[in-house]
Design the sequence.
C-alpha cells in the first residue's frame, strides 16, 4: 500500500546559508546541531548553481532536494529519496509564489524577516506533520492573510472580505449591547 507524499523539511535560508525560516517534519536530524549542519551542507552544495529562473533538483545524503533562489533568499524543500520530485517541485513553487504574494513582490531577506510570522504561517498552511495540505499559492496566501487580519486596521488597508468581517463584528457588538 502506498502512502501519501510527504516532505522532510522546508528551509528558507539567506545568501550566506543562515536560517530565515525552517520547519522539520522528519526525525532524520534529531538535534539542532544536526539540523544546522544539514542546512550548511545543503547550502554549500547548491550555492554555485543557477536556480533563479526555475527550480533545480538534486540528491543529497539520500534526500531529494528541490530548490530555488530569489534575491538573497534560498528556498528548499527536501524529502526521502523515494518521494516524487514533481510533487516536491509543486510544493516549492507553491511556497515560493505564496511568499511572493504575501510580501507583495518584494522577496528579500529584510522583507522576509519583517514578515516572518506570515512566512511561518505559510509553511504551516502548506505542510502539516510532513503531509502536504495545499500547493496553490493563492489559496495559501488567502488563508495566511485571513489569519493575520487586523480588525483595527483602517478600512482603506483592508480587503473586501476583511471589510465585511469587520462590519459583521461591529454589527454583532452593537446588537449585543
Sequence:
Amino acid at each position: 500500500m502506498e502512502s501519501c507524499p510527504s516532505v522532510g523539511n522546508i528551509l528558507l535560508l539567506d545568501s550566506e546559508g543562515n536560517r530565515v525560516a525552517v520547519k522539520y517534519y522528519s526525525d532524520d536530524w534529531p538535534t539542532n546541531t544536526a539540523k544546522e549542519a544539514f542546512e550548511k551542507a545543503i547550502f554549500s552544495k547548491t550555492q554555485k548553481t543557477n536556480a533563479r529562473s526555475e527550480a533545480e533538483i538534486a540528491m543529497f545524503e539520500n534526500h531529494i532536494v528541490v530548490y530555488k533562489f530569489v534575491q538573497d533568499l534560498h528556498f528548499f524543500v527536501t524529502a526521502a529519496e523515494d518521494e516524487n520530485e514533481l510533487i516536491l517541485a509543486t510544493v516549492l513553487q507553491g511556497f515560493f509564489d505564496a511568499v511572493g504574494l504575501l510580501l507583495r513582490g518584494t522577496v528579500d531577506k529584510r522583507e522576509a524577516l519583517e514578515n516572518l510570522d506570515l512566512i511561518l504561517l505559510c509553511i504551516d498552511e502548506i505542510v502539516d506533520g510532513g503531509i502536504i495540505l495545499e500547493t496553490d499559492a493563492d489559496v495559501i496566501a488567502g488563508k495566511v492573510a485571513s489569519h493575520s487580519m487586523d480588525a483595527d486596521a483602517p478600512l482603506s488597508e483592508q480587503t473586501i472580505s476583511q471589510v465585511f468581517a469587520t462590519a459583521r463584528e461591529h454589527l454583532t457588538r452593537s446588537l449585543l449591547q
Remarks:
- The chain is about 45% helix and 20% strand.
